[in-house]
Design a protein that fits this description.
coiled coil, 60% helix, 12 helices, mainly alpha, 405 residues, VG15
């Protein structure tokens, strides 16, 4: 959501730097795990592994945090300079006094003087936000439970010890990636939650191949504030202050002064995909996850599932199989994956009309929720994408009504 091209470039450098830090520590920790864990004596070997791994993880988390602080200093400088240079949408000091003559303005409009002060005053290096990051004792427990303890349970269930150890190494590596990257994420989150320097929120910056959950959150643009998830709707779930999972490579981009004019790399495409695929559906998250994992929508047979069914001597249900076959045939012929509404017969059009009405209601509810959080169609992000999709659906509804009445 950077205002400046320099800020956008700094965010991408930050993402790549954080990825390099986590990749290096994950490689080191997984090699250490394989070297130290003895399947014949899990408990004793795990204790030795944790003693050796803990200082590595703590040092790497500190490196992640320091890199994020350096990024934050540079990013803030670029963004504040750009805001003060343009300044068209920044309020005058007189309009933000907050005295007896009226309430203070919305938090997404920060006075020029406050931004100028943040740009020119010295910025001390931040202290570790302890309330956001687990202490060493918690990390030690996580290293044991995600790795050796998991391997022990698998072996007890009869799994091959080498296979169990290998799978546990992957799990502990994913845990370490999250623990380390949380150091950098905490720096950005602390700046936003405190409201220092005119920070009003942050956007989620996904990694190169985000999971469906992270892609969904990144598609939301700049809806994240200090209490973003506490007051959020049912779409949002996850663990921890940043709603991340083990192995998550997402970073955060702060927003200063006023609503941003652009989305972080990849987020605009995700917002468009969400509006097209998931918004307004009966179960938006399930629809989105299916699309991200298989490239299919409800009613379209997953090719992998079809192969599994055929291998088991079963045949997929005819309607699903038929839709997938028709979709592939249309794609091979260079035609749209879905038939235009104008090509439907009266019965198909009536069914499509009912679906369009239901989806319109769902999309309008989601758009209202986004607007209540300060995300309007006039700014880049999911609200704008949903509003554009709604216009198309309105035209389809009008066409269906003209043919059915």
């Amino acid at each position: 959501m950077a205002h400046s091209p320099e800020g956008r470039a700094a965010t991408e450098r930050h993402r790549l730097a954080q990825a390099a830090i986590t990749a290096a520590v994950v490689d080191r920790i997984t090699r250490l795990f394989h070297a130290e864990i003895d399947p014949a004596d899990i408990d004793a070997s795990s204790a030795l592994f944790v003693r050796k791994a803990l200082p590595i993880v703590m040092a790497s988390r500190e490196l992640s945090k320091q890199q994020a602080e350096d990024y934050l200093v540079a990013f803030r400088r670029h963004e504040l300079k750009q805001l003060l240079r343009v300044g068209d949408h920044l309020p005058d000091d007189e309009a933000t006094a907050g005295d007896d003559h009226g309430p203070r303005p919305p938090r997404h409009l920060v006075p020029r003087a406050e931004l100028a002060d943040a740009l020119h005053r010295p910025q001390p290096r931040l202290t570790d936000p302890d309330d956001r990051l687990p202490d060493a004792a918690r990390i030690a427990r996580d290293l044991h439970s995600s790795g050796a303890a998991a391997a022990k349970r698998r072996i007890a269930r009869g799994e091959d010890p080498e296979q169990a150890t290998s799978r546990a190494a992957g799990a502990v590596g994913a845990k370490v990636a999250r623990l380390v990257a949380d150091g950098g994420r905490a720096v950005i989150s602390d700046e936003v939650d405190s409201g220092r320097n005119g920070a009003i929120g942050y956007a989620r910056v996904p990694d190169a191949a985000p999971c469906p959950f992270c892609a969904m959150l990144a598609s939301r643009g700049a809806v994240y504030r200090s209490d973003a998830f506490k007051a959020s709707n049912a779409l949002f779930s996850g663990d921890g202050a940043f709603m991340v999972h083990d192995g998550c490579g997402c970073t955060l981009e702060p927003i200063y002064g006023r609503d941003a004019t652009d989305l972080p790399p990849g987020c605009a495409e995700l917002a468009e995909q969400w509006a097209e695929i998931a918004s307004g559906q009966d179960d938006p998250w399930a629809t989105w996850r299916r699309w991200r994992e298989s490239g299919t929508r409800p009613g379209e047979e997953n090719a992998a599932a079809r192969r599994r069914a055929q291998a088991a001597g079963k045949r997929p249900s005819a309607p699903q199989y038929g839709r997938e076959r028709a979709r592939r045939a249309r794609a091979a012929a260079g035609k749209p994956a879905r038939r235009p509404i104008e090509d439907l017969d009266r019965g198909e059009l009536a069914r499509a009309y009912r679906g369009l009405l239901a989806r319109r209601a769902g999309m309008e509810a989601e758009l209202a929720d986004l607007e209540a959080r300060g995300q309007g169609p006039e700014q880049p992000g999911p609200a704008a994408a949903i509003a554009r999709r709604l216009e198309r659906i309105e035209r389809q509804i009008a066409y269906a009504e003209s043919q059915l009445t």
